[in-house]
Write a structure and sequence with these properties.
globular; 639 residues; eight-stranded antiparallel beta sheet
Length: 639
Amino acid sequence: MSVSNPISNPEYPPKGLANMERFDLLPLLRDGVQVRYEGSIDKQGFNADWDWWLYRDRDEWVIFDVDGPGCIYNFVQHRYPESEEPTFRFYFDDEETPRFQIRHSEFGEKFPFVRPLADAYLGPDDNGRGPIRVVRSFVPMPFRKSCKITSDLRLKGAAKGDGGWGHVVYHSYSTPDGIATFTGRESYERLLGMWNRVGSDPKPPVESKAIVRRELVVAPGQSATVLDELGAGSVVSVLAEPDAGQPFDPQNVWIRATWDGHPTPDIECPLGVFFGNELGMHAIGLLSHGRKPDGGYYNIFPMPYWRSARIELVNKGETSASFAGWETTVASEQGGLYPEGSAGYFRSTPYYASRATSGSDSIIGDIAGRGHLVAGQITAFARRPGQISCEGDVRVHIDGIATPQVESDGSESWICYGWGFPTPPEMNPSSGYDGLPDNPWSMVRLCSGDWYPFRTGLRFGIESGEFNNQYIRHSGALFYYGVDEPGMALTDEVDIGNKASEGIHGYRSAGSRGYYVLESSYEGDDDDRLVSDTGHEVEGWSEFVASIAPENKGVRLRRRSDQITGRQKANVYIDGVLVKERSWYYADRNPYKRWLEDEFEIPGAYTQGKSEIAVRLEYVQAGETRAWNEFYYWVYSLV
């Protein structure tokens, strides 16, 4: 069947429910969207990551508070079953009453938080330490203006009777175009159908052909070509049926895919990683890739190309790799889905071979260019069988920003599980893990809705232990859609407190509370590195002039600030016009690691065709804040 070109659709790019339903549109590059995280991270950089609250509002504890359009794609909370049960309330678009509320015990049961889009995992007793109940949701919850989530209980503590671990992963949009705020009455039939058919292709059908190799054998040190196509097209699916008598080694047989004759392969990793089963001890199957109970492997990420496609299998082991069948399905007519320049290539990061790092994060992937991460696989080995090795946090830095944009309160929290990796195999349509109880483990995550967009690069690291204090060998790779060209350029910098920079940029303010010097650190892997800078507190307004590229699609402002207090807020004016889509608001705080870098994206309607803009920031009092503080601004033109 033919598929209409989404570029001409007024609801392009899809957001919220449509974003998750249109798995076939994953390759499309998106403007005006960023990924964000809010959760129970230890503010001192250790492992006390069980307190989750931002501030108290009357009789409720606020755990999530953002201004501007966005969409929640992942909600997780851990609590002991015998603890008092919290009720979560979701407030949208500055409304005084919640549109939706749900108790801890209702995950998986109360529409639309129903299985498999939402459920609960109950961990083991663990000699009386457990069990822990982990509730999770992948239900998309879009909003046009704002969103606040509260709990009627303070989520705190690691002891029985408490339990405060949790997080939200969401997209922030520069405009509300194409967004209808969540009601809970939307039709989820199509999405539930997709998630209930794991192992089947979730994409709409297209005209395609299957290229099949039967009784394929790849000798040690040899390679075999399984796809060699010329012209434009898209790989629809890759299926592998192992030889029951001599199955392949998932670590030593690699896949190598090259699109459009690129000088280096776009995909090059072990087959176990490509199929989401790096260890291969048990069958793990997600919506996108995995292994079926009958032993067959599948990867159904769409993989577009415009001139050629070549896929090879490379045997790096010492024994032959045998397949009863290998099937690559391709669509030569893309139906207008993937215009060149508007979609990314499906790629893997260079395989991170198993190794331990000393005192620093294992960097599983470090991507340059523009695109969005859609999946990842991480495997870990500690020294002793059964040794707890799950405390390391995932930390993702996007576009060179110093503050992590996505984190996790433990390794298993990245895949929305809890209490380590005690009960393999575990899986849901978006995540799972394999291994032996607690060590070794191998986790895999699909970001079908909450993919991580980047415009210049993405750096994905994971700690070894509570604060990089444990010997753990990590391995793995990331999968993403991307192009080599960056999607934004640094066009100006404003150094507050530097009189020359202030003069060049016409910096001025009203309501100054004075300048001060701060020496502190950022959160994340480099939280032991002190940075000193001079900044300014303003309880009125400040403004400056910045240079931008006239051909921009919008502008991104990045600010270095002191986050000793939370709920810093300012209205933003560009050339005297209020940016009505949102205020610049950051609800969280950290009085220990006080440096914060956060961003504000200005839609292109305010900036296109201009070579410079006048930026005015008017402080808005919220909560405990007394002023807007600013130390440094970076100005990026989106291209």
